Amino acid sequence: MRLFLACIAALLTVQLSPVRAQERPYEPPTLADSTDWAAYLPPHGSPASPLGFWRGVITRDGASQIIELDIAPNDTIPRDPETGAQALVVRCTVPDWFAWPGYACGQDAVYAEGTLTTRLLYGLRVPMRLDSTYGELVGVAEGVPTPVTAHFRRAVRPAQPAIRTVELSVPSGDATMAGTLVLPDRPGAHPAVVFVHGRGRASRQREPYREQANVLARHGIAAFVYDKRGVAASTGDFDAANLHDHADDVAAIMQALAARADIDAAQVGLHGTSAGGWVVTIAQAASPIPPAFVVTKIGPFESVYDQQWHVAEAYMAERDYTPAQIAAAIDYVKLESGTDASDAAVQAMVDGAAQAEAEGWDDILVDPPMTRATLEASWARVNRYDPADDLARMTMPVLAFFGAEDYVVHPAYNIPAFEAAMTANGNPDATAVVLRGMDHSLENPNGLRTFDGDRSTRYHYLWNRIAAGYGETLLAWLQEHVTLAE
Predict the structure, then answer these.
(1) Which residues, in sequence order, are CB contacts of 451 under 8 Å at separation 6+?
(2) Who wins on pLDDT, 12 or 370?
(3) For all residues of the chain together, what is the average pLDDT?
(4) Helix axis angle, 470-481 to 207-218, nearest 10°
(5) Cα distance between residue 29 and residue 235, in whole Å
(6) C-alpha to C-alpha distance for 225 and 231, rounded to whole angstroms
(7) Which of 29, 49, 300, 305 has a CA positioned 20 to 30 A from the CA of residue 434?
């Protein structure tokens, strides 16, 4: 027995003894520094391809404009028969231009030998070298007196809340308004905004309106954009319509929206731009369903008559015309906007137009009336309107935007009229906002701005054109005045 146990112990000793490896010098693995790893590039967002979503800047004179690019194949252009290259379309978006849609800035972009050549904003043609290691596009614009550099990096396209659209036809008297209702893509009765056009033949595809509707819907507020009567898919006679006819259309739209299960009937409001401000002022007073709120964007609160001659006054004063010429222009516009249709009035219009042409201020004249018929058909006479009585009924929350450099709806005339009317009717929730440096489109022109102070004077290119503060204020104000569907 002892012999057996001794044998087992010996066997275990042998099995548990460490095995010594054969000693040899260390040899590092061979690293494939020169290997081409192209076969292992990401299947999406490849650094070696210009296709995809990019974010970056164009810079001029020390000022940068943020831009997003969406680059895709352009299937509408045949491939190059010799090289087989596919044409590209580059879509540009400026994130800080509120509700301004992206557009095809480069519809015939070309990518060849590692360089993407395309147009960007402001008509700039920029060849950009693709850095395939880091996924960057870098270049300098062609044919510009001051260098404009472009630098973009591949980025992940930002997620956006889903929205849905419903096409609607709304009867309004002898016409039918065709429009699109943009809704948050979730159940509930949503607050809604009706976007009301300004003067002219405008449709729902007018980009700022539709894109603003999309933005509001992504924030939980439905929006309706439509074709004005007699425009695009809407029926009716546009040429025969006046401000009151357009207000009737808006009232009909409000009633149609309020009848829908996906719209909160108590939270339907209006947003009127330019002459659309007069339209919503009429509609809020006459509609069987008063709006829950009113927003005006460079909308007037004075009469058509006063607004017309105030435009002439401001326009002429900005351009250094003489006091006598300014007075003559004001007299001309007052006569055109007034009520006198006598032969003497017509002759005064003819003489005024001749004087304007001779003195070089005829650029303020739009189709000057030369007969009694054309005088009576002038826009100011067809749309003769004083909002004073209707403003007395504007007791719902009101937000009014003005541009400090807007001579069409001059804040110096319209803000006092707005504040006086809101004070007189006892409206406790009326807000006026003036956006400095902005014109009648709530934009500012490209140009140079000066920075003064501790440093020496320097000039920087002014890229941005959309008013900063409009979009943020509109959204915040609406969110304070509506209740979103849960």
Answers:
(1) 457, 458, 460
(2) 370
(3) 89
(4) 50
(5) 78
(6) 13
(7) 305
pTM for the whole structure: 0.86
Residues in CB range of 188: below 8 A, 6 or more apart: 262, 485, 486
- 93 contacts 121 by C-beta, under 8 angstroms: no
Q: Which two tokens stand for residue 242?
A: 């006046």
Strand partners, 53: 70
The residue to which tokens 């005088």 are assigned: 375
**Token pair listed for 420:** 């006086």
Q: Which two tokens stand for residue 34?
A: 């020169």
Question: DSSP secondary structure string, 16-68?
Answer: HSPPPPPP----PPPP-TT---GGGS-SSS-TT---EEEEEEEEETTEEEEEE
Q: Which residue has the higher pLDDT, 196 or 27?
A: 196
Structural contact between residues 421 and 394, judged by C-beta atoms closer than 8 angstroms: yes
SS3 357: helix
Contact (CB, 8 A) for 401 and 296: yes
CA distances from 462 to 123, 144, 444, 447, 470 (A): 15, 16, 9, 5, 18
pLDDT digits (tens, 9 = 90+) for 324-346: 999 999 999 999 999 999 999 99
CA pseudo-torsion sign 460, 463, 468, 470: positive
Q: How far is CA 133 from the centre of its chain?
A: 35
Collapse the DSSP code of 81 into the 3-class scheme (helix H, G, I; strand E, B; otherwise coil) and give the result. coil
End-to-end Cα spacing for the chain: 86
Q: Could you tell me if 109 and 117 are in contact, meaning their C-beta atoms sit under 8 angstroms apart?
A: yes
Give how far Cα 268 sits from Cα of 63, 256, 290, Å.
Answer: 41, 11, 8
- Rounded CA-CA distance 154/133 in Å is 11
Query: Which residue carries 């996906």 as its tokens?
Result: 262
Q: How many whole angstroms separate alpha carbon 431 and alpha carbon 422?
A: 9
In contact, 405 and 445? CB cutoff 8 Å = no
Measure the CA–CA gap between 65 and 96, rounded to whole angstroms. Answer: 9
Q: Is 120 helix (H, G, I), strand (E, B) or coil?
A: coil
Query: Residues with Cβ < 8 Å from 80, sequence gap 6 or more?
Result: 87
Q: Radius of gyration over alpha carbons of the chain, in Å?
A: 33
Integer angstrom CA distances of residue 436 from 175, 431, 459, 460, 467: 40, 16, 19, 18, 8
**DSSP-assigned beta bridge partners for residue 268:** 192
